[in-house]
Design goal:
By secondary structure, the protein is mostly helical. Helix content is 30%, strand content 4%. The strands form 3 sheets. A two-stranded antiparallel ribbon has the order 1-2. A two-stranded antiparallel ribbon has the order 3-4. Strands 5-6 form a two-stranded antiparallel ribbon. The N and C termini lie far apart (76 Å).
Length: 371
């Protein structure tokens, strides 16, 4: 019996070594072919063709995709057993490998992303007591936070109640980002490779990078930002003027207003989606029509220094526009840049000298000049 078990163990070890060697040889072959070898498995042809017409066309598949041995063995099994899924996609853990590859070439963008709120981890999002005690976690949370996760909410966090304490139960995900680069960037999208221009880019330049695209969890695919529509948002019965900057259609996929709830005054009056409902940040008041990108800088979403683009550093009221509380997060802020109105400060009417500068801000719908 002992000899039989020993023989079985040796056989399994040999199979493992041979399989690992085969996978290594296949990986070396595909790398030498710079991606074209991947089309040997016909099911990957559409993805290779897409990459060859994308801004990443000069890279091989292996430059971005860093699968583990386990993932590679799974690929071989699926191919040989003809158990191809209807919709081919990366597994949730495979996305982390792509994220590591993005960091190699896009160091500045990666640093900004890590410094901003879009790098929030599963632990930060799904174990937040203030949020979880008010609203029960559901699968819809993954629509914006964890759209690549392949399980249900119960597979990620426990318990499923309003009391907690909550904990991440999916191994390896607690400190992983819920919104990786591929949330908003379609790396296989059509487009020319990026290059450093010889002169400074004008703010009137191309407003829509080809790679911008939102990954929809329900459809399991990217939608180019240029194809996304802007919502019609209201302040009471008045439709708000929206910025012509089409890039912010991407922001509205998550930062969207809610449909009016039944039996509310807005619903009874037949009013449309209201600004400030849900996670909506549509500008009203003096900043109506302003683009999201006029204030929010790059990947880190930092808007702290954006006020001085249009306003004097120190206002006539003596407030420093770079340190005053302009945040959306604070309900006590009197200077919420999304909704501040002239009358919030000028309760007796807007001074004559201020009306001109307010009109300038109101009509500024393009991106803020970069330094």
């Amino acid at each position: 019996m002992r000899r039989a078990l020993l023989g079985l163990g040796i056989s399994l070890a040999c199979v493992g070594v041979v399989s690992a060697g085969a996978v290594g040889a296949a990986s070396a072959y595909y790398s030498s072919q710079r991606g074209s070898g991947c089309t040997s498995c016909h099911e990957m042809g559409q993805f290779v063709a897409g990459a060859q017409g994308s801004p990443h066309r000069n890279l091989s598949c292996q430059d971005c995709h860093q699968e583990s041995l386990r993932t590679k063995l799974r690929h071989i099994r699926v191919h040989l057993t003809h158990t191809l899924p209807e919709n081919i996609r990366m597994h949730d853990t495979d996305v982390f490998g792509v994220l590591a590859s993005c960091e190699k070439c896009h160091e500045s963008e990666e640093a900004g992303w890590k410094a901003g709120p879009h790098s929030a981890t599963y632990r930060q999002i799904f174990t937040d007591r203030a949020q979880n005690s008010k609203q029960r976690l559901t699968d819809d949370c993954f629509r914006c936070h964890g759209m690549y996760f392949s399980g249900a909410i119960g597979d990620m966090v426990q318990p499923q109640d309003l009391h907690g304490p909550w904990r991440i139960v999916r191994s390896g995900f607690a400190d992983a980002p819920t919104m990786p680069c591929t949330t908003c960037h379609w790396i296989h999208s059509e487009g020319a490779p990026q290059h450093k221009p010889a002169s400074r880019i004008s703010v009137a330049g191309s407003p829509m990078p080809e790679s911008l695209g939102f990954f929809d969890r329900r459809e399991q695919m990217h939608f180019a930002a240029a194809t996304l529509s802007m919502p019609l948002v209201y302040d009471g019965a008045t439709a708000l003027r929206m910025s012509p900057d089409a890039r912010q259609s991407l922001c509205y996929q998550c930062h969207a207003p809610r449909l009016t709830d039944a039996n509310t005054p807005a619903a009874v009056q037949g009013l449309g989606m209201q600004a400030g409902s849900g996670d909506d940040r549509t500008p009203m008041g003096v900043h109506e029509g302003l683009s999201c990108f006029a204030c929010h800088a790059g990947h880190n979403e930092n808007a702290r220094a954006s006020c001085k683009t249009c306003h004097q550093k120190t206002s006539e009221c003596g407030l420093d526009v770079e340190t005053m509380d302009t945040t959306y997060a604070s309900a006590s802020s009197k200077h919420n840049i999304h909704w501040v109105r002239c009358v919030d400060c000028h309760t007796r009417g807007v001074p004559r000298g201020e009306k001109t500068s307010a009109a300038v801000v109101l009509n500024h719908s393009g991106p803020a000049p970069s330094s």
